[in-house]
Amino acid sequence: MTIRHHPDFASLMGCAAGSQPEAFAAVIASHLSVCAECRAEVGRMEQIGVALFDALPPADVVSSAPVVAMRAGEAETGVIEEPRAARTGGDGPRGDIPGPLVAVLGARLDDLAWSWKAPGIWTHSVPLSVHADGELMLIKVAPGKKMPEHGHAGQELTIILRGSYTDKLGTFGVGDVADLDSDVEHTPIACPKEGCICLSAKDGKLRFTGSVARLLQPLIGI
């Protein structure tokens, strides 16, 4: 597997800080499970965070926050845990669903129940915690299918799980991540042989540029 497109630096930093919404964290975790380069980068970020934490002056607290308790345990044992990002890729993917999602979705994309949304487009919603922000969805696109041109109301983070798609930003294959914001408008075209299945997290609806697509958006729900 050759990965050419990685998450932005800010997205990796959010992962290292543990500050990402659940949906986006699921996409990043899926990418880290197959990308040693980004695992190493997030590991370095976590180590920097630990060093900065250690440099803080001591303060009295009524009860220890989890991170305080963790650092206290390390001080007593002299053992600093391996960065979370380095551990994320330990199990690796099984089947064609990333390892971090196997417990929720099972191991095989072909075993999922797909919902038809439009000709050549199917989706499968991934459940999140009750109060989680954003949306996490698997999207399957038929070979050669061209998605309507659209932008994004907020951030969209997508990892390719099978096949590929091509747009003005390049070709995105298995393991690649498209890290997009509201400034980007594109027209993805699925691989003519394999089509494309991707895992997409977003915190707002797509903004279709065409009038027909805008009219149908409430029906297809993406």
Identify the strand order in the major beta sheet.
1-2-3-10-5-8
User: Helical residue percent?
Assistant: 25-40%
Low-confidence sequence ranges: 61-94, 212-220
Tell me the β content: 15-25%
CATH topology (fold) name of the largest domain: Jelly Rolls
CATH architecture of the largest domain: Sandwich
Distance between the termini: 29 Å
Order of helices and strands: HHHHHHEEEEEEEEEEEH
Could you name the CATH class of the largest domain? Mainly Beta
Corresponding CATH superfamily of the largest domain: Jelly Rolls
Number of strands: 11
**Tertiary shape:** globular
Helix count, per DSSP?
A: 7
Rg for CA atoms: 19 Å
Can you tag this structure with a few keywords?
222 residues; alpha+beta; Arc Repressor Mutant, subunit A; Jelly Rolls; 2 domains; six-stranded antiparallel beta sheet; three-stranded antiparallel beta sheet; 22% strand
Question: Could you characterize the architecture of this molecule?
Answer:
This protein has 222 residues and is of the alpha+beta class. The model is unreliable at 61-94 and 212-220 (pLDDT under 50). The chain has helices spanning 9-17, 22-32, 36-55, 66-77, 84-88, 102-105, 211-220, and strands spanning 115-118, 121-125, 135-141, 150-152, 156-163, 165-167, 170-172, 177-180, 189-190, 196-202, 206-208. The strands form three sheets. A six-stranded antiparallel beta sheet has the order 1-2-3-10-5-8, with helices on one face. The chain has seven helices and eleven strands. The chain folds into two domains: 9-88, Arc Repressor Mutant, subunit A, CATH 1.10.10; 108-220, Sandwich (Jelly Rolls). The longest helix has 20 residues, at 36-55. It is globular, with a radius of gyration of 19 Å.
